[in-house]
User: Fold these one by one.
Assistant:
Number 1:
Amino acid sequence: MGVVSATSTEVEHRVEYTRTLNSMAAVLMNRYGNVLNSDAIDSVYPEKVTGLKITKTDLIKLDLNEYSFNVQSKLTYIQDDSMQAKALDETFIFHIGPLGQATITSKVRNKETSIEVMSLAKFNHDHYQTREFAYTWLAYLDGVVLDNSIKDKPWFDNAEYTVKIGSKEIQGSILSTLAARKAYLFKGGHLLRELEVKVKALEGSDDVFILDLIIDWQGVNAAGKSVLAKIHQTITYQLEEHNQWNVISIEEEHLLPDIAPWQNLLC
Amino acid sequence: MLKKLVILLFISLLSVQISHAEGDELPLFSGIGGSFSAVDADGKAVEFSDFEGQVVVLSFGYTNCADICPFTLGYLARLYSKLTEEEQTKVQIIFVTIDPEYDTPGHLKQFIGHFNSDFVGLSGSKEQIDYIVSLFQAKYQKLSVLNTVPTKNIRRVTPKLFSDESDEEDKASLYSHSVTLYLIDKSGFTRSLEYTGTPVDEFVSKIRGLINE
């Protein structure tokens, strides 16, 4: 256990790692979300996919700005009015552009086997849409400009972003809050640790949701000091027509980083 | 509670702490700690910023604590004694009570003084204490209904003294609370989380690193 400080090289590596990971993950989540839409995006997938669960991933850096992302998955689909299931092993080669955006340059189907049918109902389109949003948002926070940019969303200028860091509180638009937040988290990377979606009961509405994110951040503050943060973000959004998200607010608090097994012990 | 103490000691044997060489930079823990107001052992209002310029080791507890608090303060006294006299002037050990109702400033001073009179005990209103606890994301919870445990039955370091010899039996509540020791730099930023299982020399090394920053 314990913690170590981050050197400038470590910070650069962290930034590169999280930018590319979040950017590639956003692209993959979008892809798998589309596989689960009624219109299959690619003839290599069955037409009526009902569930898709990623079981294993492996990321390898091939060259400067080139990555191999291996994904093993299981999917269920309907064919000839009966439920079928497959296990897939796919490799995606990504190129990372100058603004951090990831693009798939090639896809390889390594293996495809029929397997016993199982329930994958919760690994549906919403599952991947939520994750696509989360990774796109984190990539945005890390300064990546994606094709599906957060900044171009209609809610971007209206959503309220509140950050609580100890006794300091920042409140305002996404842009103004991020500008003030930079004093504390200047350069580093956001790594998604946990994600949970809840229906916001208090609103008395079934189309308002809360996306709870736990994120690790490591980097330096504006004074160049190493900083560790465990960030809890509560993102409230309304699901509008055609599954479009309208983000209403983002609340962020910084929690005790998980560094030791005894830190939550009460005596 | 003794069982928890044994578990804590067991974890200390299992935990592999990455040794910290003096001079290594400790990272800032974002959002842990910050500005607060409290009442010192002389009953005077203090601000946390009053300790700016000193390295602070801050812990939470209460004077009726039967096990971990005396153990922690004994550990901190040992830690403090490893520092040179000059280093001691640059370090402040702070003990924040989580039972401000029972732990009056005077009683807290007497309790702390049993371990080292240089240590600072902080009390305040319940709102002030709860705010400090929330700032450091510590926790505490009451184990008994308010003031129902006769203090004579608690294994106590320093009995509370009463000027008016009341016939009423002295009673208090029991609590469980966080055991973390917060190492805070001269600018008020939390830089490390420790506990009584941290080897004293390793902790001293981290303190020296912050003194010399």
Note: Residues 98 and 130 of chain B are 8 Å apart (CA to CA).
Number 2:
Amino acid sequence: MDFSLIRERAEKNWKALETLKQPLIQVGMGTCGKAAGADEVYATAKQTLKQMNLLGRILQVGCIGTCYLEPIMAVRKPGGPFIYYGNLTAKRAEEILLSYLKNDNPRPDWAVCFRGEGPVDGIPRFEDLPMIKPQVRIALRNCGIIDPENIEHYIARGGYGGLARALRMDPEEVAREIKDSGLRGRGGAGFPTGMKWEFARKAPGRMKYIICNADEGDPGAFMDRSLLEGDPHSVLEGMLIGAYAIGCNEGYIYIRAEYPLAIKRLETALIQMEECGLLGRSILGSRFGFEIHIKEGAGAFVCGEETALMASIAGGRGMPCSRPPFPAVKGLWGNPTNINNVETLANVSAILTKGAKWFAGFGTEKSKGTKTFALAGKVERTGLIEVPMGIRLKEIILEIGGGVAKGKKVKAVQTGGPSGGCIPADLFDLPVDYESLTAAGSIMGSGGMVVMDEETCMVDIPRYFLSFTAEESCGKCIPCRLGTRQMLDILNEICEGKGTPEDLDILKEVSETVQKGSLCGLGQTAPNPVQTTLRYFLTEYEAHILRKRCEAGVCKPLFHYEIDPETCNGCGVCSTKCSVEAITGEKKKPHSIEQEKCTKCGACYEACKFQAIRIC
Amino acid sequence: MEQAIYAELPEEGRSEIEDLFNEMRKEFKGRPEELIPMLQRAQRRLGFLPEQAMLEIARITRLSAARVFGTATFYAQFRFQPVGKYIVRVCRGTACHVKGSDRLLETIVGYLHAVPGQMTPDGLFTIETVACFGSCALAPVMVINDSVYGSLNRSRALKLLGEIRNSFPLPKLASLP
């Protein structure tokens, strides 16, 4: 079928949805939404409409980014804007629908915001929310707005227009357009995408491959998952454009098996693409043909590394090889291969639609465009965000994230997962771009951003990451295999109170060896968490080693809980929470903890509403 | 590092494994790059990878048994011991860690009397840990079979597990292994 006809039909159907004469309800049905109970909300909405004898439509959409409000529902009456409600239960969802659709009361006291034509009394505009205002959504342009399982929604919002434009250009021109945009790889390393494509294009070989790397293995990151769940076509379109620019006809998506919903949505998307003539021999009537395979990863962090990923696709152990030869010359089955990250490809489709100049208008001189971050940890508003490069860390953490939860003090932010580092709060003026984060000892990484407060121990954090990298080290090269284990052993000793001052020197030396001597990125960056904490939080290491104290109350042998008799009012909640009966005391009189019995599980500390239990 | 000890499939599962391989022989061509998808397929059906399944895959792909076992043990997804009716997976991602997932895991281990990788004696639960589920905004997270539970605390986690346990009648003492 002709693409213009498909687009016409898609636009007609989208228009019909926008001017729907019945109520339209959207429920965020990403993995996060479902984890918070979106399925129940969806079922309730359906039932409530039926109960009120109302015809209406319920759409499942992806993640709009305000994950801390999940489950989220948006309700639109004919002609009105969408009104968003968060932290729903089935009962609350029903009450809202009855109140708004029946009695025309949108319940501003429960509403979060509205999106579309306003204003609505007492409800702020979506774009004015403090979490949303500093954001620019390019890669996430459709997430939370369209039904990810309906290709027409994507097409109606300009989707596959970039591909249509690319197919009218020479492949070289397409690669140049990406080069001009200044787009750099969003998987972490930040290599210029256009240049990568040119290498693969120029490499000799008849058979070439393009791979989309969706093996988002670093703990603390979920950008790629949300993007694939919320708008799979934006990534697939980018992949097609890349394939055309490189001159290849076959592509793979390597995705984690832990993301079943994203895999399902990709499979649906591929079927729909085929129906629309966007896959197969002659795409959109051109001479360009392309097919895509989905490969499920099997749970190995190292497979995010390009050569390991290809070894895994070929059916073996995912172990990296030394480079050169680079994948662009000799990759999958010895053929030139180009590997791009999910977010990179979602940007590609936007760049080809709107032009390189438009994209280069965002960001800094060397880091163009935007970056998505998975904002999580001890922050008030967690979620998936997309910000222009060059934004300051404090804007992200304090304005978008709303600062640290429960009035605690922010201590650091961790970027880049196990390959990144911890940036202390006094460096929060740092602009977020590839160079600045590297200079601070961390990396941009793929976008994990975990905020830490005073209850996070900065010796435990590198220990946690090292236990991960030591486990995930493939074992091929010695510096990584033994070095990560050695660093972990030392950190374990320090956390158990057995550390000595010499340990710090050894730690430093080993970390430098692992950094310089490892074969692939996993080993080369594994010492980053150790090095940054040594650089910025040396006093915490010293407290652990010299004073045998963990101020954060994390390393069990190095602290104990005490009840402050002045503050304790004897409510007794702590003693009911204690599973080892270590807390005793009469009702309404200060309680006390028997230290010999206490397992330091922290249940009492979490339960006390009066902060009477102290970490000593 | 836990030692991989391979288990046999119990007698009653034999016909299941035959059906599975009849299907797989039709579906796959036996090319080396199909090795991981075949292992995934077998585990999805059987819950784990019994020794005879891996040997059969080696025959179909004409790869050495060492290559098949070597690949299977490399990846965290594959398990070689039977699993309980409910697989409880506790996320050990960074955000979950910062929000106390180690304590959550400790509580669950204490409640179910099994360590990660182990099945409870009644065959009801298997505890596992995963590096990250990618639901970090809702940390700490636990997944029971395919249902994700977010923003957990210890009492909610125990309540969920207790509800499952209580929905099954207690086995007779004699039938316990």
Note: Chain A is about 40% helix and 15% strand.
Number 3:
Amino acid sequence: MAKEIIDGQTMTRALTRITYEIIERNKGIDDLVLVGIKTRGVFVAHRIESRLKQLENISIPVAELDITPYRDDMTHEEIENINIPPLDIDIDKKHIILTDDVLYTGRTIRAAMDALMKFGRPKKISLAVLVDRGHRELPIRADFVGKNIPTSQKEKIRVSMKEIDGEDKIEIE
Amino acid sequence: MKRYLILEDGTVFPGVGFGSSIITTGQLVVSNNRTGIEQSVTDPDSEGQIIAFTVPAIGLSGINRDFYESINSQCKGVVIGSSSSATVDGSIPFGDWIETLGIPGIKNVDVRALSKHISEHGEMKASIMDTHDEHAIDQIKALVLPPDLVKRVSTKQSYPNPNMGLKMVVVDLGLKYSILRQLSYRDCNSVIVNYNASPEEIESLHPDGIIYSNGPGDPTDLPNTIENIKVLQKKYPILGIGLGNLLIALANDCKIEPLDQPHHESSLAVKEVASGKIDFVNHNHSYTIDPKYISASDFIVTNICVADGSIEGMRHEYLPIMCVLFEPEAAPGPTDGYYVFDEFIDLIGSTKNQYGGVDRWQ
Amino acid sequence: MAISDVHNILIIGPTSSDKNVDLSTALYDTVEILHKLGYKTSIIVEDPTSLLSSGEFLDRIIVEKVTGDNILKYLNDYHPDAILPTIGDKNALGIVASLNGKISNIRILGTNYLASLATFKRELFIKRLSQNDLPVINFVSSDDETEIYSFIRKIGFPIIARRKYSNRHFSGWTNINNLFELDNFMALEELEDTKIEIERSIRGFSEYSFTVMRDRYENAALVGTIEDIEPIGIHHLDSNLISPAVSLNDSKLQKLRNYSIKLAQAFNVVGACTVHFAYNHKTNECYITEFIPRLSEETKFLEYATSYPLATVVVELSLGYHLDKVQLDSGSNFNGATEPFVDHITSRFPLWTDPKQKYLGPSKTSNSSIVVNGFSIEEVLNRGALNDKINDNLERYNKLRQLNDDELFEKIIHPTNWMLDVLLEALRRKFEIPVLSEVTSINVPYLVALQNVMDNSAVIRDDEVDENNIERLVEYGIKGVGNSKLLMNSDDIVTKTVVKSKRSIGASGPGFMNHNYFVTSGISNDIEFNDRNKIIVRSPIITSKRDIMVRQFVLLQLVKSIEQNGLEPVVIGREPWTAPLSVRYNVLEIDDPHREMSELNLIPENKIFKIIDFSKFWNLDTSDSDNKNIFQINARELKNVNIAGDTTIKVMVVTDGKNYLAPSIIYRTKKNSQTYEISDFNNFLSVENKDEILTIIKHELDLYKEINIFNLEIVKRNDHWVVTKVYEGMTEDIIRHELASSVHVIDTLVKLILGNKIDEGLNLDEIFKNYDSDYLVTVNEKKFRFMDYDEVNKLIQSI
């Protein structure tokens, strides 16, 4: 039975707060690039970008990263032979902010960083997530977190976003 | 019995007196608050003011003494149109209540014409008296309103509002109790200090965050407080509300300017720039930040007033400072603004995080 | 911004039922803005004459019974992108609820399947509210005793209970206040398969109504609040209503506001959402009783009270516009993110056509209403419910005086539509206010207001008006001619609003570029007259829905015509006429329930070009003497001969006293027991026919040498025409006479009033020139169809 723990309004406020924090911690946002992971991470990136635009009147480029080819259980050869579509943005010397909806074990993020490294040499990579649910299996931490939600490993966190699910909310089941 | 509201420019509005029968003079403010007469009259912002309420049938909804925003009222006079001598919940009638507070009132005034006059000619001094001869008008013109409004309303002695959570120091520039209610609701352990409290005094209280409240008067009258802000903002997260916001702006090389039409309304729309969301909040201020200087400063604009485009909220780009010009604690008015307090607590939390503090679960 | 893939909208229009709210102005505003914004619109209506002037903005009018099947048929035939049900009253919501799953990707604007269904199915409504932590009255429907008693233990007394029989019939609700009454109820005989339904009783709670506007981006504004003087138990529209809800203090107001916004969110209503509350001021209990996700009587009332352009904003929000970036038809931006502030009280008093006393209950019985304004409750009572010129209160007073105390008390316990008069009489007999409040559940301040009114009436009746108490009388809205003169002579008195004028929505004002001044001014401090000559149109109180629609149409056309001819229209009505949004700038509307405008001489005589008086049209009283400046529109019957015939012709004639124009003819004939009525028949008349008719007209109207409109009815008997009826003035037929012709008649009339003359020597074609391109054909009074020239010709051949 899914239970709503974060409603739409709280979610949008969390995104606004992440945006303020991004501005606070970077003196100048000119070299920022937002890279959104898979499906919902991309919407998170776009929403942050639109807020940055409203506040600072600067357009930050947003790219999409599909890391499904990079599954954790693939062998080294399989990874070498994968054809990934390149990002359409130059990421050299840029500060990348990776965005995703939920941070759990950290393996998705590691795969994302692997992919990014293939495309160029960014100056810095930071991580922004909507939800951090704990249980990291790799030494990865988020720089910007919307909400920290402690969960047991049996529970599932489900994020709904207006762009694709029709409404904004976060449920736990 | 017949009384008159006489304005500085000589305009006379006749009416019927009620409440206290003393003669009074003050700065006339026209308030469009739909409800919440109790809050408005006990709001320390009303120090030295004669408030004209334009809503009809005042008093019908009853007087609730739990809604007081300060212990004593500093309001100088009350001007209303129509009123009701009976209340819907059996509480004390409006006229009697005003009398127990010792405030003079005048009713059956044509508040519509008054409101129109003030919007055309600006806020001015006024007096409630029993005659309206030449002499009376000269008296008003000659009267100088006291300049040290904040000094009068700020608490002389520090006092606590204890709880178990974050430690907040609230600098009392004329705060409304509802700010403390909102902090209590969020478990904040608050200490309220005088407007002139020194940085050392505040630091000795080990605050997690400092709040500068709303208050009456002109922000340029408080140079000492402004200097204190310059010191404290380097070390602590700060929230500025209303007058507090203006002081913080002045402490950071921004300029302020008076509004064309002062905002005195319990429900005026404010837009959050980042998300485009519109909230309805309580406004009680006559000044705003001059937008020409904002882009050069280190502040970003976070909220604007939908009606006239003026700045209603700002945030420092890298220091943990956030400010709003409206009154997020409402009282009276819609509660859409409560989120400001949550945002300030988030700000404190993330500041701690950055410096290796404890991760807080919200 | 606006939803990009909607270009074509189907509007579910009103049915012909008389029970429905008259939303013709809202409909006009809606289709006008859609048209101006570039959308293609079509509408399904049962009776196209109910569209009146809105017709010019619509791309297609489908005349069919407004049912789910017909809508589905239309959707399959024409594939619009979206449906708009918000103007179609309850019927439209019912259709939306029934269309679920059948319309694939056609959008529903404003409301949605869930919200519409919830207005009919109480279980769904309750479930959704409970899920969202909104206060709703719980109820149980069960035949299991354990369940029933457990429920009663949980909610406590007082409760109401009824039985639901297996044939889906219900017994009436019984009030149960204690265990004794409960035992009695439960002990009654039970049939097989009977369920018992129990609900918390909210009888005696105060009733409030909040209307919220919400856009697709979660921005919501509280547009208006209404409170009922009478408590729950009397239908909302049979109660006397007051806006804003002055009896709510800040915390109650914000609580209900938050609930209303949350409900709109819970059902995802975009546009207007009206929520009804039951509130108990003693216990502070609060329940949501129903919600209305469409335009309604409440939104119509609030649009007048606050000047907020509800109808226009509702349709734009449902199309995806932001609340603060709405467009008015004049192309200007409008900031809809305002919670309108009103500095006076607007009140709606229901009216009944039957003058006898009637018992009131949860079902609506009133036929129409009157809306008045004032600064205090006493003032609105004096102008509205206790206004002798409207309600015959003196008569009522006389009747009530004859009742003894017990009989009077019975009328208090069982509320009637004379409630306020009854209470006045009770107060006169020194019944105590707290007792009256306890019995009727009417809040004390209203009773005190009645007491004030009564005390002041005594002053007037005993002729004790002087400069000391005149001001208090003025404050209570008591104004008769004599008193007005007295107050005008004193230079110290505050002249409060005698009448209220509306010039609404300045889309920008000094200093506030986005702030909207909803100016509702009062004489003596606000009304600014310009220099133009004016034509004043006086309109009385109307009670029938049909007449209200006619009045809307006629006034709108008059105003437009007067404006176009260079003068300023001023409409003075005994009740307010809500002008459509686009016209509000051009006309000065003043409502004057006490008819004081003429005495106060506030519009300079030399600026009044003419007064057009409708009072005689609707046959209500008018106390005007013979004034050359007043053009009376009478609907006076000049001739009525009882001759029947199978074929009749109705002719509308406008004359300047010498020459005639007959732009519209309706032809009616019977064949094979079907009756056919064809409008704009001018183009199908032969030259001989036209000549014959013109001769008849000249003959009948020979005696009348003034500017006027006449309606003649001619019957064909034995191959020649006989005049059976002649009416002077505009009759209800003006809306049957098809739109373009009617507009033309009104415009011609205005031009004639301004001094123009009908050209001499017009030929037959010019006299009978008709301006419509579609012909409305009605079969058996029920089936309406639009046909073009050829189709009508074919029809005529066949009959």
Note: Chain C touches chain A at residues 218 (CB under 8 Å).
